[in-house]
Amino acid sequence: MQVTTSSGKYSAKHYPDTIREWKKEGNYFYFYTSETILEVRIISDKIVRFRYAADGKFQRDFSYAVSDRLEESPVNFGLREFEEAFELYTDALRVFIARDDMRLTITDPDGRIINQDEMGFHWQYYLQKGGKIVYCSKQIQEGERFYGMGDKPTDLNLFDKRIENYGTDAYGYQKDTDPLYRNIPFYYGLHKGMGYGIFFDNTFRTIFDFGKEREGTTSFWARGGEMNYYFIYGPELMKVAEAYTSITGTPELPPLWALGYQQCRWSYYPDKRVKEIAAEFRKREIPCDVIHLDIDYMEGFRCFTWSKEGFPEPAKMIKELADQGFKIVVIIDPGIKVDPEYGIYQQGTQQDYFCKRADGALMEGDVWPGKCVFPDYTNPEVRKWWAGLFKELVEMGVKGVWNDMNEPAVFEMGTFPEDVRHNYDGDAVSHRKAHNIYGHLMSKATAAGMRKFLMPNRPFVISRSCYAGAQRWSSLWTGDNVSSWDHLWLASIQCQRLAISGISFAGSDIGGFIGEPDGELYLRWIQLAVFHPLMRTHSASNETGFNQEPFSFGPEFEVLNKKFIQLRYQLLPYIYTTFRQYSKYGTPMLRPLSFVAQHDEKTLDRSHEFMMGDSLLVTHVSEPGMKAKELYLPEGQWYYYFNDQVYTGAQLITIPTPLDEMPLFVKAGAVIPNYDKIQYVEQRELSEEMILHVYYSDQIVSSSLYEDAGDHYGYKNGSYNDIRFKQTSDKQHFELRKKFFGQYKAAYKRHNVQVHGLPFKATQYVVDGKTFKLNNSNFAGGIVKIVVERNFETLVIK
Ligand code: MIG
User: Fold this and answer.
1) DSSP per residue over 338-349, as a string?
2) Rounded average pLDDT over 95-105
3) What average pLDDT does this structure show over 222-239?
4) Under CATH, which architecture does the 590-651 domain have?
5) pLDDT recorded at residue 630
6) Could you tell me which residues come within 8 angstroms of residue 648 by beta carbon, excluding any fewer than 6 positions away?
């Protein structure tokens, strides 16, 4: 069947014909038509990969996305032959492959359709550029929603949208701008309570259409390469997220300081200014761990150099800042200045490490330094060389690297022309195939170098562009946003969307990169960003001289900004625990409401509320002068953070939004570990107590606390603590049990347990069987405070 005819650019569309034979090799199945082959690989009972060779020959099975730690665990799978179709089954899935056109129908064991092909696999010749455009199309099921796809600045539900992946420097992007910086070809579908995911692992330009082009049809295609996708069944969306992240890999733990507050600007210059900023933070006692240096720290924008005028003694400056608890992160771009006197240019030229055009000329383009050439990071040898270049920076004391412009961005041209050649790990390709992994591999090489030279400490890398799987080595920020209330919402959407696309460690430029926020917008942005894994202010106000620091908006806002940055530091043990869960199980740190309560229809199209970790629910204050915000709470009981009032979920509520509060709720029953007020992460060691806020519930609720040294890799050899809490209270008595696993020796000695919301009048408490009387000092503002030894196992209050 052919539905189109050929145009000058494209041939007619081709479709598979009848399956003539099949074979099985271990957990791989092959189905042959006259000219094409379908490979089906059973990875686990819920993950199946489909690969389709339209010309009867598979390409190299190679991926920059898939983690080499991906393990197959196929059990109880097999094939049954029916007249119309083949059926592949596992314990959780049945995949029917139609004999006459290879269309797939995927059901659960009860035969309920999860996903069904419309046309299924098809392709057309790309007459204009060569190769094939490979397609897959699927039927949209009744009520189906779509989520995922990385950083797209649009409603969380992607139904009726078309999305494109071709990494782009989208300066000042707006709602619905597409493509953007990141390339994450992964989406979720959800209907009738069944959630699944499709990861189309193809690095060419990819397009996903969720019923926009043709009603009732979702399709995705790439302008080359193979139709190669992973189907992941939940049915829980959170399980799909974890499985996707296990396929594309989870990160190691970052240094704890990278979860502190970070301050950035284009640019702090010269060194004196950097020191002034640092001093302001300490003087005003606003917590901060990191200062970023943007491009002006370099000599004429030459990567790996320092401006002789602005930063004559970088090591000395870094040391001075380190003594006050600051870490320095420096920007490194891919563009290498064409300058015969410049060492990096010399090395790269001699060793032939720079990208070339199809005709053999160097790929030259203008960026900040003027005319530049660009390393071919798709060449493993180049990655090795690049990694080695970070040695000196680390020796000077630099603790983290910020990779920018790696879409790649080039002035005037926008990006590289499509004819540029790339090594692609030994299988040379054009830029059409390598574009979407250029920044991905740049940050990979950067992280490899930083990790090596910082050993035994942990590296921190932040990058702008990437492909699926970059969470294994890098964090990211959402790029050049704008100081507007719209962008506050976009920041929230983008970080939620990235989190469910495998990339939790992300944040936006607080206050907006372009433009000037007023005090109110900046404050509301700080409040939101407390709950973004990466919390960094950045701005581009070089020319106007506008300042964008927490203390730049007058004393009233300074106090409020400080309050919320302090809240961030208080919550660090909770945030770090959430990071550990992400790092270990792939669990997204941020969870849109639909991922928290997918059985509740009312959550499915909401985009403002989200959970950070297992116990905190937040939304941002979305308008200037807003006095109250309406939000939806998922089922259960929720404490409003600022006054402990309890709300019942599964309904809309309205909450007042004075400037010194924000809609922040704690799940009843939870334990939220807190640090004391500290100025920077290392200071946590000074406290003898770790605070545990416990929110009363008469349901059984579990929580956890993960802790380790916060830097270095001791945790990989068992030097960590995994602490589990279980609250088993009832109407007359409160009970908290603790289980402790691990061998890390934390600095604090005691827990300061603060119990919120006790429904009865307490008179005594019992710690591991010993009874004490509660006295006045134990009560404060409706909270019962009890100090117990760190190794307590049970605390009862009656
Ligand atoms: O062409 O390094 O997104 O964060 O401050 C602009 C200067 C280059 C873009 C980044 C931004 C950074 C800026 N960069």
Assistant:
1) --TT-HHHHHHH
2) 98
3) 98
4) Sandwich (2.60)
5) 98
6) 633, 636, 637, 638
Residue 791, phi then psi, degrees to nearest 5: -90, 20
DSSP per position, 81-149: E-SSEEEEE-SS-EEEEETTT--EEEE-TT--EEEEEEEEEEEEEETTTSSEEEEEEEEPPTT-EEEE-
DSSP-based three-state secondary structure for 454: helix
CA trace torsion 421, 426, 432, 435 (10° rounding):
-90
Fold entry, domain 671-797: Immunoglobulin-like (2.60.40)
Distance between Cα 215 and ligand 1 center (Å): 40
User: What pLDDT was estimated at residue 3?
Assistant: 56
Q: Which of 61-70, 87-96, 484-493, 536-545 has the lowest mean pLDDT?
A: 536-545
Same CATH topology for 21-235 and 590-651: the answer is yes
Whether the pTM exceeds 0.90: the reply is: yes
Determine whether 516 is an active site residue: no
Question: Which residue among 169, 292, 404 has the greatest number of ligand 1 atoms within 8 angstroms of its CB, and so is best to mutate?
Answer: 404
Main-chain phi, psi angles of 281, to 5 degrees: -60, -45
Residues facing residue 428 across a β-bridge? none
Query: What's the CA gap between 601 and 193, in Å, rounded?
Result: 9
Closest C-alpha to 685, from 746, 731, 640: 746
**Which atom of ligand 1 is the closest one to the Cα of 294?**
2
pLDDT digits (tens, 9 = 90+) for 692-745: 999 999 999 999 999 999 999 999 999 999 999 999 999 999 999 999 999 999
- Give distance in angstroms: CA of 299 to centre of ligand 1: 17
Residue 2 has pLDDT above 80, yes or no: no
574: helix, strand or coil: helix
User: E strand or H helix at 30, and its extent?
Assistant: strand 28-32
Whole-angstrom Cα distance, residue 350 to residue 353?
8
User: What does DSSP assign to residue 701?
Assistant: E
Distance of CA 525 to the CA centre of its chain: 18
Please indicate whether residue 410, judged by its CB atom, sits closer than 6 Å to ligand 1. no
Assign 74 a pLDDT band (cuts: 50, 70, 90): confident
- Return the number of other C-beta atoms located less than 10 Å from residue 318's C-beta: 24
Residues 539, 522: Cα–Cα separation, whole Å: 11
Binding site membership of 407 for ligand 1 (Cβ less than 6 Å): no
Quick check: is 407 catalytic? yes
- Ligand 1, atom 6: nearest CA belongs to which residue? 405
Q: How far apart are CA 498 and CA 116, in angstroms?
A: 26
Q: Which residues, including other chains, have CB under 8 Å from residue 717's CB and lie 6 or more apart?
A: none
Atom 5 (ligand 1) nearest CA: 266
Q: How would residue 4 be classed by pLDDT, with cut points 50, 70 and 90?
A: low
Dihedrals phi, psi of 93, to nearest 5 degrees: -140, 155
> Closest Cα to atom 8, ligand 1: which residue?
405
Assign 3-state DSSP to the chain and report helix, strand, coil percentages, each to 5. Answer: 20, 35, 45
331 C-alpha to ligand 1 centroid (Å): 9
Determine contact, residues 513/267, Cβ cutoff 8 Å: no
pLDDT in the model for residue 542: 75
Residues 268 and 683: their CA atoms lie apart, in Å, by 25
Q: Is 404 one of the catalytic residues?
A: yes
At 769, give phi and psi (nearest 5°): 90, -10
Domains of the chain, by residue range, sit at: 21-235, 590-651, 671-797
Atom of ligand 1 nearest to the CA of 464: 3
- The domain defined by 21-235 folds into Immunoglobulin-like (2.60.40)
Is pLDDT of 358 > 90? yes
Catalytic residue, candidates 480, 509, 558, 609:
480
Which amino acid type is present at position 246? S
Q: Among candidates 577, 565, 581, 688, which has minimal Cα distance to 290?
A: 565
What lies within 8 Å, CB to CB, of 46 at 6+ separation is: 90, 92, 93, 232, 233, 234, 239, 243
